[in-house]
Request: fold
Amino acid sequence: MAKKQFQSESKRLLDLMINSIYTNKDIFLRELISNSSDALDKLYYRSLTDKKIKVKKENLEINLSFDKDSRTFIIEDNGCGMTKEELEDNLGTIAKSGSLSFKENMSKDEKIDIIGQFGVGFYSAFMVSDKISVLSRSVDSNEAYLWESEGVDGYTIKKSEKEDHGTKITLHIKENNDEFQFDKYLDEYEIKQLVKKYSDYISFPIKMECIHHELKDKEKHEYEDIKEIETLNSMVPIWKKAKSDVKDEDYENFYMDKFSDYDKPLKVIQSSVEGMTSYKSLLFIPSHAPYDYYTQEYEKGLALYSNGVLIMDKCSDLLPDYFSFVKGIVDSEDLSLNISRELLQESQSLKLIAKNIESKIRKELEKMLKDDRDKYISFFKTFGVQLKYGVYNNFGQDKDKLKDLVMFYSSKHERLITLSEYVAEMKEDQEAIYYASGASITKIHSLPQVEQVRDKDYDILYLTDYVDEFCITALQEYEKKKFINVSDNNLDLESEEEKEEIKKTNEDYQDLLKDMKEAIGEDISEVKFSNKLKTHPVCLTTKGDVSIEMQKVFDAMPNEMGIKAEKILEINEKHAISDKLKKLYKKDKDEFNKYTKILYSEARMIAGLPIDDPTEISKLICEVLAK
Ligand code: ADP
Reply:
């Protein structure tokens, strides 16, 4: 019998398939099962309107079987089947319109893209088989036909026999080679795994005859192989069930099973959306960060299903980076099963779903913060850094979405509070939101700069995370209240009189201050007397956008950018050390310089900055002490 030629474009596609440009060969099974499921859907739908077609839903099924000796894998359904013409049309060509044309010089990626548009579909079976037979009988015909092909050479169609309507596809599985063990598809365990992974939620049963070893004789240790038909898929996805039909425990078990976590999730978010795009989603906030969460290896994303069939394990486009900790699944009928990754990114439906999901997660978190603060705090302690990172990432474009979800430690309440709580409790004369940063709460608490602000009975946010100050800087203000670092040299909390007074002192001692600055060197941009310090002798403040804590973060980066804070050494004017300095300046310049160096080192120490030459400073201190 003469072989028929595939339509030229199909031939090219086939060629690509046989040479496996898709690395994931496993998907052939998903594709074939999905086709069978469609055929069953079609038949069932027709039976509802066409009285001649009599089927019972419970009889519709997909059967899998394999035979190691003949290297065959069979998938059979009792769906609508295909007529001779349909076999020709559907399996002889991929794009009926003929609009698909491969250009010779197309890159591999472009080709994958085009295949994506039309679906890898049935042809994907050629990735794993060197011969395919399709025996089909249409529900509209009494005749069955057998379509056979060994690849690009073409195909044959001949009349055949089949008792019932439906399609039986026999794959002749390729021999193992150096690159791939095709035997995988002739193994009961592997097949079960693949069905579970990709097609668990197909709504028709996927059955296979499985072999169990059963103990026959205990004494003799004799086993017997028992053959039994098993249904491999669970059929109804948990996210498709009404919320009222699912116990919390079921959701938790599903989460632990699917996302391999030993712990229950902190929060389950289930939603069903109908509208411009319809989808169902089942999202989880883990109760602890995955071990690789803060590493490069971590991949964010949600499992994406198209009507119960898995398209992608981790669709990263569905989650913004600041919610990268969320796990879960999205199932939408509006997405085509065979859509390629690249095209999926462009899909309007997907964008809309992603937008909805982002806002759903945000609302649920806001709700948790309001209704179950302890739980929220537990969440925030685990993933808060990610939210704060989200505030300043991408030039702060998402900051408004996140500003009410971030929390900081309050000096007054001695616990985490939100910015809106801070602002609500601001004093009448208080203009700004004050913050101080450092390595720990205790260290910040003893910062000299903190004293003046606390004396005014203003609350201070203590920032201990390296991202905190960047987050605050990106926010700039909250409810029109500016953020001010207590270490900013322009705190502006003094009265006009006090300001005048200190201004005069600084003018009177201009030369002394200049010489101090010279003794310290380029590291510092100014030395001044100050009246903001109460009991402490010295402190470092900064001018401009870069604070000392930010400088530390920059310094720790692998490609140090040399971004430095502009530092000012402030000396407490009312402290005895000021008088001492003034006296020494006149009497003993050498001693004056030693004092200067020691005081500057003290200020650096308090700020948590390293001292360039600790040996020298230690010597200087002892020289002064020994006097
Ligand atoms: P797609 O499923 O994306 O249309 P395929 O190449 O997988 O592309 O299949 C082409 C066509 O062949 C299907 O649209 C369907 O009409 C037909 N077909 C494939 N498998 C079956 C089946 N098991 N039963 C009935 N028709 C089928």
Summary: The radius of gyration is 36 Å. Residues 495-542+564-627 form a domain with the Four Helix Bundle (Hemerythrin (Met), subunit A) fold (CATH 1.20.120.790). Residues 484 and 491 are 7 Å apart (CA to CA).
